[in-house]
Amino acid sequence: MDIELWKRISGFIDLDSYPELPCPHCNQYSLKLSKESVQSRPVNKEHLLITSRKYRFEKERKQALIDKSREVSNKSEGLLIPLLLTFTNAYAEAVEPTNGNTFIFNSFFECANCQQNISASGMLLEHQTGMSQSSSKARQIKVEHFSPSIFIFPISENVPKHIAEELLDAFKHFHFDPPSSASKLRRAIENFCKDMQVEGNNLGRMIKSLEKTHPEEAKYLDALRQIGNEGTHGSDVAELDLLYAFQVFQFVLELYDRNARYNELTHVYDKLAKKYEKKKQPQQLPKLEQLDNTK
Prior knowledge:
By secondary structure, this protein is α+β, with helices and mostly antiparallel strands. It is 53% helix and 18% strand. It has a six-stranded antiparallel β-sheet with strand order 1-6-5-4-3-2. This is DUF4145 domain-containing protein. InterPro entries: DUF4145.
């Protein structure tokens, strides 16, 4: 899982340098934004401040940086340094994307490997690259919706469908509503615990029961439960924390691949035992849980 990639596109990014993404059709990192397909329409800034969590966060964050720089300028002695800082602050405000024109946009991504396409939509910011009105305009975008959804990490075919579906929903919501994404991740964790057939009428108790058979996985899931709770009952879920949670859950889900390899190995072992130890009762391989507990 490439955390830096998803961290990069979680905010506004230059349209001309948007990175290639994993294709949901072939899983290759060859999905590229078709800049020619981008179509935009103006949208009211005040409306975005209410409806867009990301736009509101970025505008407040950038303005705080500018205000801090202005405060330093006011406290500086002499004439030259405050003058330079004042000019720098004015320029920064003029070219800051969140202070520019705001749009909603639609576009398409095309996979260079399988030639399949997906649609994408979100916000587009347009600002002047210089102080004069004749300067060329630079554009930044934040994709909020991919259709079909993009996998933040590959989901193995060995993962049960009811877990994979909740996880894919978490991936989808990550780009526009991190708290909802965390809540979806929590539901995926609940489904995992149910699939492990553990006791408990809530997630905390199920994870506690899971410690008996899968202590390592239970330890990781208990930490993820806290993030899921924040997404369900609060609103302060950072994208980076959520990406780390996805990375941890990816490791937990590898249990299904390990079980599949174990079952395959058992089948091969039985065939070899029958061939070379016909007169002996084939010994049974230790259970996977026993192997895990010897680590």
